[in-house]
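[agent] plan:
  1. take the single chain provided in the ticket
  2. run structure prediction with default settings
  3. attach structure tokens to the ticket
  4. add a short note for the reviewer (M.T.)
[agent] executing step 1
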Amino acid sequence: MTRVLILCTHNSARSQMAEALTRDAARRLGVNLEVHSAGTEATRVKDDAKTVMAEIGLDLTAHTSKTLWDVPDAQNFGYVITVCDSAAEACPAYPGQTTRRHYPFVDPSGGSLDRWRAVRDQLQTQFDAFVLALRDGRDAPPTYEDSPAVPVA
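[agent] step 2 finished; step 3 output follows
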């Protein structure tokens, strides 16, 4: 089983959505992944994140914001993926042996639900491509720009 950690600054929106989307992609594509998310600091999962994820059938109500040190076996991940520039800068050297990826996404906080949906859809495209690459035995896309569009169905 491959372990995946998705990092953002507050673990309140992008990383939470990416965690749920990655789990869903792994389930749909038949890939055995253990997926976690964390932040450089913990706050709370934003209501707008819960709303836009519920629209596509993914429930974040049980999700909580956590830091890296709240995640089980925090130094043992096959992939560590940052989804915001701040987290990438705050965590340039991950303590464990891992493959790092940086997929930056716009922070939807304070924006309309349409902005939240756009970020959610971009995250879904990216993390579907990530899981598909793992399923096919290819290296995960190194950047968001290198990820091909992947059908959601």
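[agent] step 4 note for reviewer: The CA atoms of residues 52 and 117 lie 6 Å apart.
[agent] ticket updated
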